[in-house]
Amino acid sequence: MLDSILGSLRVVALATRTDFRSITSREVALFEGPVGWGEFSPFLEYSYSESVPWLTSAIEAAFVPAPPALRSDIAVNATLPALDNPAEIQALLETYPGCSVIKVKVGNDPGKDRERLRIIRELRPDAKIRIDVNGLWNVDQATSFLNSVGDIEYAEQPCATVEELRELKKRTQIKIVGDEVIRKAKDPFAVDLSDAVDIVMLKVAPLGGITRSLEIAKHHKLPVVVSSALESAVGISYGLKLASTLPSLDFACGLGTGSLLAVDVDQLPIKDGMIEVTDVRPDISVLNKLAASNERLNWWKNRIRMTWSAGAESYIYERGWNV
Predict the structure, then answer these.
(1) Contact 155, 131 (CB under 8 A)
(2) Active-site residue list
(3) What domain range includes position 98?
(4) Can you tell me the distance from the alpha carbon of 227 to that of 249, in angstroms, rounded to the nearest whole number?
(5) pTM surpassing 0.70?
């Protein structure tokens, strides 16, 4: 199987529209299997062991049929990086036609964060706003901001640890979403989320694929929202499939992040705030046009070999996947 993955591997470099988490170009590795295409795109700084779920998710996408879909279109939110210029904010929001929910990156500068939210409310007065903090605040900082920010739908990972989130829950009525506290845990099933979060964030690649994401959601018995990890259209399409299989889905999903890319391997257009659940099979001519160098291709091949040995191979055979 590893030979099959490496034999079809394509690595592309996707420029972003703006700086997103200090990223201006997103490298992703894509490969084809009997079911479709899979994407392996852990961020470059991730270790081999941390990359194992990303590889198992990609293998599942390419080799294992997805569960039956319960819905054919997924509502998505607009995702806004830490932009401060009103014209830039307006231009980016226009790439999310019909989206009535806006997720905003905050956490580095409270003054600029509040001003960013003010601008968004002025531009989109009817939109729901949710904020993503990436665990940057301590409990006091989170309390101060959340109790002064006005009406927001929820705060995603305002503090880094479960203990901090549990303390924060005592101080605010705003709903809390757990992201990194789950997907970066050594064992997501062992994390006690009681009285700490209201909603679980599911990201299909970092959590190891659709099967494992569904198991995590069932285990924690909390509402969920599905989001991306800044993947290409191949990875996003697999996140859409996850969202389509959930028994209930009460929140718009963060799966419209293709709008943050200046180029992509295919298009997943947003229409009336929704994206259709569909297979993405990138055109080879597009992959050639966006291809990274041979040096980068070889770097990714080695990364896959090391990640395979670090735990992906054993996980696949434990699952009994006939691949």
Answers:
(1) yes
(2) 105, 203
(3) 73-276
(4) 12
(5) yes
